[in-house]
Amino acid sequence: MEQQKGILLESGTNELEIVEFNVGGSSYGINVIKVKEILMPVKVTAIPHSHKYVEGIIELRGEVLPVVCIADALGVALDKSLNDKFIVTEFNKQKLVFRVSTVTQIHRISWEQIEKPSSMYQGEATQVTGVVQLNGEMILLLDFEKIVVEINPSAGMTVESVQKLGKRSRSAKNILIAEDSPLLRKLLNETLTEAGYENLEFFENGQEALEYLLHLKSEKGSIEEYVQLVITDIEMPKMDGHHFTKRIKQEEDLQTLPVIIFSSLITNDLLHKGKMVGADAQVSKPEIRELVAEIDKYVL
């Protein structure tokens, strides 16, 4: 897997690689950047009264890691066997292991190929953030951050964490936010409103957000009065946050607009990707107080 990471494309190309795996007869995908390695199952030590998605813990090279059964998280049947696979992941500054049935292959695709789930079938409880058709089959991209928050709500963004900042003044500045996860849009709205930022405009991906900015530029001539800051996730259907940031910084009348990347993929190994596309700041989810501190630098 480390070798695969070595061939990842340069930042801002709007492309990614996904690891395809199978659970309960359906195909799913995870961004290869989140994957540390793939293992055959090892002995799992059960933890009493743990969350229903959590099988227990394993020891891996001196680290104790929780094992999450994807089938349980998705509500599908899975006969656990020695032929299953463990996907070791790292995102949101933590490591987790996910049990799946099989791991098939790695695909290099464009974010443009990924369709956002339709409101007709996704529902509020969905763990699916995107759908891609490849070789005559559909691969569902899962919201792993949402699964983690369901297991451990304290791992997400909370109003209480912002309240610890103390009494704050209200800001009339306009902030544009590109985030594909319905859960994280809700949490961002709650926490940033509590932090004093009330004028928030949400978009489900970078393409929709960029089209809005370009429309403002065309209609108004200048967007300085209408948008003062952009916050963007990285993983989004149609257009990812790196490409979105790159496009902003390439547009003559948009390039001075501050952009903060807020993503579970912000690690020391990946910070250079955001810098390459001109991001003004990068914050790892779910560090909401750090995000508020960065926002304060640009719009207070």
List the helices and strands and how they pair.
Elements: H1 2-5, E1 15-23, E2 26-31, E3 35-39, E4 54-60, E5 63-69, H2 70-74, E6 85-91, E7 94-100, E8 102-110, E9 128-134, E10 137-142, H3 144-151, H4 159-163, E11 171-178, H5 182-194, E12 197-203, H6 206-220, E13 229-232, H7 241-250, E14 259-263, H8 271-276, E15 281-284, H9 288-299
Parallel strand pairs: 2-10, 5-7, 11-12, 11-13, 13-14, 14-15
Antiparallel strand pairs: 1-2, 1-8, 3-6, 4-5, 6-7, 9-10
Helix pairs in contact: 6-7
InterPro entries: Chemotax_regulator_CheV, CheW-like_dom_sf, CheW-lke_dom, CheY-like_superfamily, Sig_transdc_resp-reg_receiver
Domain Response regulatory: 174-300
Pfam families: CheW, Response_reg
In short:
The chain is an alpha/beta fold and 300 residues long.
List the keywords.
single chain; 300 residues; alpha/beta; OB fold (Dihydrolipoamide Acetyltransferase, E2P); Rossmann fold; 2 domains; 5-stranded mixed β-sheet; 9 helices; 26% helix; Response regulator; phosphoprotein; CheW-lke_dom
Any overview of this molecule?
There is one protein chain. The protein is of the alpha/beta class and 300 residues long. The protein has 2 domains: 2-151, CheA-289, Domain 4 (OB fold (Dihydrolipoamide Acetyltransferase, E2P)), CATH 2.40.50.180; 156-299, 3-Layer(aba) Sandwich (Rossmann fold). The protein has 9 helices and 15 strands. It has helices spanning 2-5, 70-74, 144-151, 159-163, 182-194, 206-220, 241-250, 271-276, 288-299; strands at 15-23, 26-31, 35-39, 54-60, 63-69, 85-91, 94-100, 102-110, 128-134, 137-142, 171-178, 197-203, 229-232, 259-263, 281-284. The strands form 3 sheets. Strands 8-1-2-10-9 form a 5-stranded mixed β-sheet, with no helix packed on it. A hairpin with a 2-residue loop joins strand 6 and strand 7. Helix 6 packs parallel to helix 7. The longest helix is centred in the C-terminal third of the chain and has 15 residues, at 206-220. The protein is globular, with a radius of gyration of 20 Å. Mean pLDDT is 89; it is low at 1-9. Residues 15-153 form the CheW-like domain. Pfam families: CheW, Response_reg. InterPro entries: Chemotax_regulator_CheV, CheW-like_dom_sf, CheW-lke_dom, CheY-like_superfamily, Sig_transdc_resp-reg_receiver. Residues 174-300 form the Response regulatory domain. One of its GO terms (biological process) is chemotaxis.
